[in-house]
Amino acid sequence: MFSTNEGETGVGTSQGATQPGIRVQPGPDNHTFLVCRTVRSGQVIKCPGNVVVMGDVHPGGEIIAAGHVIIMGTLKGVVHAGAEGYEGAVVLAFRLQPTQLRIAGYISRAPDDGDYAGGGGPEMARVQEATVVIEKYQPGNEKRWVNQA
């Protein structure tokens, strides 16, 4: 079920989007929702599949998805990927500075020192050995993290 706390969602869907290398039948749990706007403080986006945000997620904004979350901007709010327990979910953003980052039942947040400069490129958060790890996104390494899920 898709929900938002606003009347104008700016959201479109594409049925059948899945993880690379995994074939499944299209269905309601395989949707990818495209949010074509910045998610501002107080706004909550909840989706049963994957979410792609074409903008930033401001502090106080929240994204909750059963699958992966991709943010084409800066993440400064709260994100919960794999909200239904999928530990193979990932969070990708041009810059990760979340208030809180959750993947399945694992919780992480940005460092306290405020000096976090990021990696100078897109970053990815995923669960590895029961810990949320954040690393620079490397195109072509999808097989490494998809096969571990």
Detailed description of the structure:
This protein has 149 residues and is mainly β. It is 5% helix and 39% strand. The chain has one helix spanning 142-148; strands spanning 3-4, 11-14, 32-35, 44-47, 50-53, 62-65, 69-75, 78-81, 91-96, 100-103, 106-108, 123-128, 131-136. The strands form two sheets. A seven-stranded mixed beta sheet has the order 2-3-5-7-9-12-13, with no helix packed on it.
Count of DSSP strands? 13
Strand content: 35-45%
**Nearest-integer average pLDDT:** 79
Instruction: Provide the spatial order of strands within the biggest beta sheet.
Output: 2-3-5-7-9-12-13
Number of helices: 1
Instruction: Tell me about the largest β-sheet.
Output: 7 strands, mixed
Low-pLDDT stretches: 6-28
Radius of gyration: 14 Å
The arrangement of helices and strands along the chain is EEEEEEEEEEEEEH
Can you tell me the overall shape?
A: globular
Structural class: mainly beta
Helix content: under 10%
Distance between the termini: 24 Å
Write the layout of secondary structure elements.
Blueprint: E1 3-4, E2 11-14, E3 32-35, E4 44-47, E5 50-53, E6 62-65, E7 69-75, E8 78-81, E9 91-96, E10 100-103, E11 106-108, E12 123-128, E13 131-136, H1 142-148
Parallel strand pairs: 3-5, 4-6, 5-7, 6-8, 7-9, 8-10
Antiparallel strand pairs: 1-4, 2-3, 9-12, 10-11, 12-13
TL;DR of this structure?
With 149 residues, the protein is mostly beta strands. Helix content is 5%, strand content 39%.
